[in-house]
Design goal:
By secondary structure, the chain is of the alpha+beta class. The chain has a single domain (40-184), classed as Porin (Beta Barrel), CATH 2.40.160. The protein is built from two helices and eight strands, in the order H-H-E-E-E-E-E-E-E-E. It has an eight-stranded antiparallel beta barrel. Strand 6 (146-155) and strand 7 (160-169) form a beta hairpin. It is globular.
Length: 192
């Protein structure tokens, strides 16, 4: 009898937990507010519009992120190196890159923005500019306190950041490439 009760209660709790989350989201979207409401992405866009005439080389914006992982290795009985794509994700995330002059010797922070209705947003990376603003270093924070370091270049004409990180294990080299394409604000191109 206790086993039957347990088997009925556990699925009911799981379903109700999902239902409460959906209820919260629906209530949040449909609730009547006496004031105009904006979400985090809209707030970021308003911030970007305020800084519309930013200095050249300013990477602030909303980006879509794509990644490619390449594996280069020699065959077991071969001296030739072969390279193949191990993983590829196109436009799998959206992030906001915002200037951060406050602390930690970082110039910009990377914040994922593709989840709605969060109480707070995680800083997932820190950008620091090297040389003349065209080369940047990204410290990307992963779970379990793992930090991955990428070297990035900024193409101002294309509004694009491209980063590379490599790892070597024995005779195998993995190359991780990240591409950030700016969605907002887009630079107005002057036509002759």
């Amino acid at each position: 009898m206790k086993l039957k009760s347990f088997l009925l209660i556990v699925p009911a709790l799981i379903v109700s937990a999902c239902s409460f989350e959906n209820y919260y989201r629906m209530g949040y979207q449909k609730s009547v507010h006496p004031y105009e409401q904006i979400n985090f992405v809209e707030l970021v866009k308003k911030y970007m519009d305020k800084n519309e005439k930013a200095a050249p080389g300013n990477i602030e914006g909303i980006y879509t992120v794509s990644s490619v992982v390449l594996k280069k290795s020699k065959g077991l009985f071969s001296s030739e190196e072969h390279e193949r794509t191990v993983d590829q994700k196109d436009h799998y995330a959206q992030v906001a890159i915002l200037r951060d002059n406050a602390r930690n010797n970082r110039e910009y922070i990377e914040v994922p923005i593709d989840k709605n209705y969060l109480a707070s947003y995680s800083v997932r990376g820190e950008f620091t500019t090297l040389a003349e603003g065209n080369i940047l270093v990204l410290k990307h924070f992963e779970p379990k306190n793992k930090v991955l370091t990428y070297a990035f270049t900024y193409d101002q004409e294309k509004d694009m950041l491209e980063g590379v990180r490599t790892e070597t294990s024995g005779n195998t080299t993995y190359t991780y490439k990240l591409t950030f394409v700016k969605l907002y604000p887009k630079v107005a191109v002057a036509h002759n």
